[in-house]
Amino acid sequence: MSNTTQDLSLDPHGAHGHGAHDNPHLGEQFEDIAQQYDTYTVGMWAFIVQEVMFFGGVFAAYAIYRYKYLEAFSYAHLELDVFWGTVNTFVLLFSSFTMALGVRAAMLQARKAQIGFFLATILFACVFMGVKYVEYSAKFDHGLIPGHNFTLYTEHLNEVREKHPHVAEAVEKNPALVPQMELFFGFYFAMTGLHGLHVLIGIIVIGALVIRAWINKNKPLDYMPVEMVGLYWHLVDIVWIFLFPLLYLVGGH
Amino acid sequence: MAKSHSTGGHHDAAGHHDGGHAHVIPSVGFYFWTLLVLMVLLVLTVWAGYWKVSVSAGIVIALTIAVVKAVIVISNFMNVKFGTKQVWLWAGAGFFWLIILFAYAFADYVSRDHWMKYPGWEQTISERVTSEVSGEAKEEGSH
């Protein structure tokens, strides 16, 4: 393989010459920056496909139990707050927008704009986690923690009766629904918990990119790490796009 | 094979060519419109959640909107729209896998009610072997 490197201006608007000076951002195993770019992108997509398979397994398990315990899951999901779910979807979609703009700024070597958009993305991510904290606390208070204090449908059935009389009636008629409803909340915490963990990792990695951009304020930077993190962040958004309707909405209100 | 930049009027098509590769940088407007469409679809998702339809119809509606939203995010925010064929292949492979996973899993679970009509199908092979062996032992004992 030839070791010649090409002149690969980091400014995408710049001249796309093919001179032979060393580009500090080009790995020696690559012919040129385009090949390096393609390799990075495909590698990241391989990781994303792995994530799709990982979440896919959990979604499949949820879908199967939703099918098997249709009635119980339809009752249990009424305890989820559609308002907070909608707010969080809005926040995550908006964070994907600021992330895309941040990646764009990085491509254009617009360092200040990049830092600004990334800080906005981190802010939205923190709002998302804050809303999750509010929701999780409410589940603790209501006795909806599987295996720990799942007492809403046994000890506090009157509370259910006030809001959803048909659910209380069904549970009284058929107590076998309760462990099935507990399973729904098992899925709820497992799925949103795994997703929340991804958000948390996203906050840390985007934070690292902000520091990297800050330290190298006046230097041209390879934007590929930024684009890779961008892909990861959009994946986190996509997972939520499916989680929100399947957990909060499906089954009627 | 420099990729054409004329894939629509939204992005400003600033790009550079290195060894036949074109890297498109979409415009702010392109991302803004993408966000706007996603927001409209979010409103539609929540609204549809309150329609008086059966659970299965609700799932189909919710999933259809979710898939449309995901495709928009993958295409526009993740820039697959401007990606190489190899990226398209990888992006597609992940979701093709999901189709296989769901098709096979549900082919099993949905058909179980049908096979319930035929007693004995639910026995695992080990159970069957155990019952056959004990059956043979009984036969031997009766001789």
> Spans of chain A with pLDDT under 50 lasting ≥5 residues?
1-9, 11-21
Order of neighbouring strands in the sheet with most strands of chain A: 1-2
Count, helices of chain A: 8
- Top-tier CATH class of chain A: Mainly Alpha
Neighbour order of strands in the largest sheet of chain B: 1-2
Approximate shape of chain B: elongated
Question: How does this structure look, described?
Answer:
The complex is a heterodimer of chains A (253) and B (143). Chain A has helices at 33-68, 70-76, 82-107, 111-142, 157-163, 165-173, 177-215, 224-249; strands at 144-145, 149-150. By secondary structure, chain A is an all-alpha fold. Chain A has a single domain (33-249), classed as Four Helix Bundle (Hemerythrin (Met), subunit A). Chain A has a two-stranded antiparallel sheet with strand order 1-2. The termini of chain A are far apart. Residues 1-9 and 11-21 of chain A have low confidence and may be disordered. Chain B is mainly alpha-helical and 143 residues long. Chain B has four helices and two strands; from the N terminus they run ββαααα. Chain B has helices at 28-49, 55-77, 85-115, 125-142; strands at 17-18, 21-22. The model of chain B is unreliable at 1-21 (pLDDT under 50).
